[in-house]
Amino acid sequence: xxxxxxxxxxxxxxxxxxxPAVQLTGVSKRFGGFTAIDDVTLTLRPGRIHGLxxxxxxxxxxxxxxxxxxxxxxxxxxxxxxxxxTENARVLQNICFIKESQxxxxxxxxxxxxxxxxxxxxxxxxxFAGQLIDEFRVPLNRRIKKLSRGQLSxxxxxVGLASRAPLTFFDExxxxxxxxxxxxxxxxxxxxxxxxxxxxxxSTHLIDEVANLLEHVVVIDQGRILMDEDADVLRGSxxxxxxxxxxxxxxxxxxxxxxxxxxGGLASVTVAGLGPADRAEAxxxxxxxxxxxxxxxxVRKTNVRETEFEQSA
Length: 313
Ligand SMILES: Nc1ncnc2c1ncn2[C@@H]1O[C@H](COP(=O)(O)OP(=O)(O)OP(=O)(O)O)[C@@H](O)[C@H]1O
What we know:
This is ABC transporter ATP-binding protein. The protein is α/β, with parallel strands linked by helices. The chain has eleven helices and 15 strands.
């Protein structure tokens, strides 16, 4: 029996109904005395592109290992398509996990990877894979050990895209990819996802590069979820106010300040959520309002919440 799936208008299998694709409740992962994932409760809804973001060592890869059944949680309940993922073929056949450190048999060439992919991924699209192989210029008959770093990354990206797995993880897939190849990856992911909706989790440090792809953002730090919000809500949740310092200070005095910057008599202050009336007030005070990039927003909100966490600890 397969994991619950349903046909979309495009005829592609996707997780059924509105049941969560992934559901974690009070999940922790400890390595000896060190807690890498700390009491995480998180839901990933199906049919969305999620960004899993966070600083080095935050716990992103560990979390993905737990969700993809490669490791056991020390505590808590973890469900993927409603079932526990570990040692569960029904769930695992619907997951594709592309990671930078992917290992292949010593004597394998890319052609062996592409030949074996359909055994693992029931929605594998050979024609799409062929198109991507040409576009990313991956040599099919060279030993994988001899591939350049970028070619190796491209191999993973092609498998991840052409697998069309209902739940696909890309853990820092861009490492080694040049700017042209990264853009190609983003373009093909978005086009293919539009035609074949599925649940995608993208872990990356290049937040602004993927900002337009992301529908939902999860930020993790020291094993805890710092942010779990729709990207659109996040985008509209802060604005930078720029102008003469005294006017800016007066305007932000009663508002939630996320970040302050400035030089000489000029100030640039990022504040949370401005409504139409606030915007009119800023305009009449001669202040400029600038949008905040997703990356800046995440960095600023993360700093504020890290401080709150530290104070409450
Ligand atoms: N097998 C392990 N044994 C001990 N500690 C581990 C193990 N695996 C991960 N850790 C620790 O858990 C923490 C989270 O690591 P993880 O690889 O999940 O971070 P990450 O967010 O993916 O980081 P990066 O962005 O640098 O790849 C780190 O402090 C790491 O050293």
